Amino acid sequence: MKSNKNDYLDAEAIAEAVQRPNMRFVPIKTDDQLDLQAFHRVRDRLVCRRTSVINQLRAFLLERGITFRQGRAYLGKQIPELLEDAEQRLSPRMRRLVDRLWQEWKALEEQIETLSEEIDSIASQDVACQRLQDIPGVGPLIATPLVAAVGNGAAFTKGRDFAAWPGLVPKQYSTGGKAWLLGISKRGNSYLRRLFIHGARSIVMSLNRDNHAIGTWMNQLEARVYRNVLVVAVANKLARIAWAVLAKGEPYSSTPACATS
To answer: pTM score, two decimals?
Structure first.
């Protein structure tokens, strides 16, 4: 767009962009995709609120010299005992405030659980989501926002293009004929990037690599890079596999490469 922004220049810029052969276009989302995105946006907001409440609760208790080990589940088990223990150094006013935060925490947990169950139900009824869930590290919380965001993946010509969209590829810096590959670009859909990295971290820790085609590749990569680099590389691999499953409409095969040769 040239010069200042107004309706005429906006229309002119759109008309010029449409005629460019390398311009990238965003497919129009269906109502079901928009509904799925709305569910995930609300759930993500509730999760952020829950984290905020937990952090505030820990901070108030820390000021009174009361500490708990890391872990949301452990803290949730200890709060009722704390409120009932009269020997703890909590004033009646602070005890009431902690109880209010605890009630807010429980209400948020119920809302998050309700939305998670709704997302699981949607994933169980969608064929594309069912295929995606065959991929290790991909569950309903990854499959549904992925389908909501890209549909059948037709907006991308290859898996690397899709992996670049949530910022899971190295950032490039080239000048004077020299090229440097930096850390991941972190561009595009940050929500999907976070979910893919969480999924990758789970399979790095718990996947039986002998039974999956990517197991040998993970072992070789783990021998020469740091753990976090491995996790991001696995997330990139999962994104490419997920795009292939969506674009080709075929189920994921976990057969090791050596078994198919």
So the answer is: 0.85
pLDDT band per the 50, 70, 90 thresholds, residue 96? very high
Reported as a single tens digit per residue, the pLDDT across 97-112 is 999 999 999 999 999 9
Q: Which has the closest alpha carbon to 185: 172, 198, 175?
A: 172
